[in-house]
Amino acid sequence: MKNKYSIFSIIKNAFSYNENWQRAWRDPEPKKEYDAIIIGGGGHGLATAFYLAKKHNMTNIAVVEKGWIGGGNTGRNTTIIRSNYLWDASAGLYDHALKIWEGLSQELNYNVMFSQRGVMNLAHNLQDVRDLKRRTHANRLNGIDAVWLNTEEVKKFCPIINTSPDIRYPVLGGTLQRRAGTARHDAVAWGYARGADAMGVDIIQNCEVKGIKRNGDSVEGVETTKGFIKTKKIGVVAAGHSSVIANMVDLKLPLESKPLQALVSEPVKPIIDTVVMSNAVHAYVSQSDKGELVIGAGTDAYVSYTQRGSHDVVEGTLKAILELYPIFSRMKMLRQWGGIVDICPDASPIISKTHIKGLYFNCGWGTGGFKATPGSGDLFAHTIANDEPHKLNADFNINRFVSGDLVDEHGAAAVAH
Amino acid sequence: MFLINCPYCGERDQSEFSAGGEAHIVRPKQPTELSDDQWAEFLFMRKNIKGVQFERWNHAHGCRKWFNMVRDTSNDKIYAVYKMGEKPPTK
Amino acid sequence: MTRNLRTANSKFIDQTSRISFKFDGKKLYGFKGDTLASALLANNIHLVGRSFKYHRPRGIMACGSEEPNAIVQVGNDASMTEPNTRATEIELYEGLEASSQNCWPSVNFDIGAINNFFSPLIPAAFYYKTFMWPSNFWKLYEYFIRKSAGLGKSPTEPDKDIYDHRYLHCDVLIVGGGISGIIAAKIAAKNNLNTVLIDDKNILGGTTLFQENECFKVNNSYSNEWLKNEIENLKSLENLTIKTRTSLAAYHSYNYLLARENLTDHLDINEKKDKIRQRLWKIRAKKVIIATGAMERPLIFNNNDRPGVILSSSIKKYIDYYGVKCGQKVSLFTNNDSAYETAISLNNSGVNVNSVVDIRDKANSLIVKQAEKLGIKIHWKSSVVNTSGYKKINSIEIMKLSDDGTTVFGKKIKEECDCLGISGGWTPRVHLFTQSGGKLKFRDEDNVFLPDKSGLDQISIGSCNGDFELDQIIKNSVRLTKKIFKN
Question: CA-CA to C420 of 20 to 30 Å: which in A30, A394, C29, C139?
Answer without folding.
Answer: C29
